[in-house]
Amino acid sequence: MTTALALGSEVLDLKVGDLVQVRSPEEIRATLDENGELAGLPFMPEMLAYCGQRMTVHKVAHKSCDNISRTGLRKMADAVHLTGSRCDGSAHGGCENACSLYWKEQWLRRVDPTEPLVEAPRAGERELLPLLVEKAQKEPFDDGQPRWSCQATEMLRAAPERLPLKDLGQYRQDIRSGNADALAVLRSFLLALFDRYQDLSKRFLPPFLRFRDGLHWGFLRGGVLAGRTPTEHLDLVPGELVRIKSREEIMATLDSNLLNRGMGFDVEMSRFCGRTARVKARATRCVDERTGRMLSMKNPCIILEDIVCEGAFKANCPREFVCWWREIWLERVG
Predict the structure, then answer these.
(1) Are 193 and 219 in contact (CB under 8 A)?
(2) In a domain, 135, yes or no
(3) Close Cβ partners of 269 (under 8 Å, ≥ 6 residues apart)
(4) Residues 318 and 237 in one domain
(5) Does 234 lie in the same domain as 159?
(6) The CATH number of the domain where 286 resides is what?
(7) In this structure, is residue 39 part of a structural domain?
(8) Residue 220's closest CA among 244, 262, 253, 186?
(9) Final residue of a domain: which of 163, 183, 198?
(10) 57 and 134 share a domain?
(11) How much is the pLDDT for 119?
């Protein structure tokens, strides 16, 4: 098996706000194995457009939520999220998840703000692109549909180690890196302890001794006990101003699994209830992280400007997923 070279192997020890420049395609190719990966993390075709650009560190990606096997948090090494760098899905069937891209430190170099900008050579892009495009898909499904591969679908390989709640080093890293302040870290830790207690109470306590029926913090409970969940079509378009409905109104549209027509609503999204925002896009296609299959929505979902998961209830996970909203959870303003 071909192994990646140690280009830029020095530890950058990046923090939020640091200025970096994305290396050239040729330099990045030298860090990748035959699968176009570094330590299990794919470098995707959509990332080539950022080569040579100067960008700031938005979050240090030392951990990530596990949306594949639902094991909690996973540990990531030597990676960051850069401000404004999200996947546009152009090489993955038009996926509209707009995931925040992971950048290994070997793909970056630290620069001083006073250093003159020298355009990085792009000579290696033509040689690297075919490999990245080839590895963006795996063997197709039995029905012939493509099986997509991206940073999200390969997260368990890129972050193979679980990060338990008791690992206090993660909280120190949250503060040291600038991902979160001490108050946010303490709050998220206490909430995680509370949710752990609630899980144990459902296992070992009789119902009459449980607090709020053992529900996690936020105490979300679907109100649709039988039949299909309701739907509504507002035909919203980008630029329109909407208000996110109240928790009670949204819970009335959810089943016992907090789903509306298969689309989930969670406690992170509930933090935005009552907020006003503009419609950024209508979304219908996304890659399922667990399978790599492209999912097509019969009822389009809405993406709102500047509304992302902030990890407040998930140990300050820096991944910042874009939230998808059913139109029945929104109302026009004015």
Answers:
(1) no
(2) yes
(3) 309, 323, 325
(4) yes
(5) no
(6) 2.30.30
(7) yes
(8) 253
(9) 163
(10) yes
(11) 72
Whether the CB-CB separation of 272 and 244 falls below 8 Å is answered with yes
Cα(169)–Cα(192) distance, integer angstroms: 15
Say if 230 falls within a structural domain: yes
| Phi/psi of residue 11, nearest 5 degrees | -75, 125
At residue 122, does pLDDT exceed 90?
no
* Token pair recorded at residue 11: 């530890």
Tens digit of pLDDT for each residue in 56-82? Answer: 999 999 999 999 999 999 999 999 999
Domain boundaries, position 127: 19-163
177-203 as b/e: b if 16+ CB within 10 A? bbbbeeebbeebbebbeebeebeebee
Residues 144 and 26 in one domain: yes
Q: Within 10 Å of residue 16's Cβ, how many Cβ atoms?
A: 17
Separation between Cα atoms, residue 272 and residue 270, nearest integer Å: 5
My answer on whether 156 and 236 are in the same domain is no
On the 0-12 / 13-18 / 19+ scale of CB atoms within 10 A, 75 is: middle
Q: Give residue-wise pLDDT tens across range 141-197.
A: 999 999 999 999 999 999 999 999 999 999 999 999 999 999 999 999 999 999 999
227 vs 185: CA distance, rounded Å: 40
User: Does residue 224 share a domain with residue 153?
Assistant: no
Dihedral sign of CA atoms 92, 163, 81, 305 in order: positive
Distance in angstroms (rounded) separating the CA atoms of residues 324 and 262: 12
pLDDT in tens, 248-301: 999 999 999 999 999 999 999 999 999 999 999 999 999 999 999 999 998 899
Residue carrying the six token digits 């998930």: 314
Residue 13 domain-assigned?
Answer: no
Total structural domains within the chain: 2
Mention every residue, 6+ apart, whose C-beta is less than 8 A from residue 182. Answer: 175
Closest Cα partner for 108 from 236, 14, 207, 36?
14
> Do 48 and 128 reside in the same domain of the chain?
yes
In the listed set 147, 163, 179, which residue is the last one of a domain according to the structure? Answer: 163
Q: Can you give the pLDDT at residue 123?
A: 72
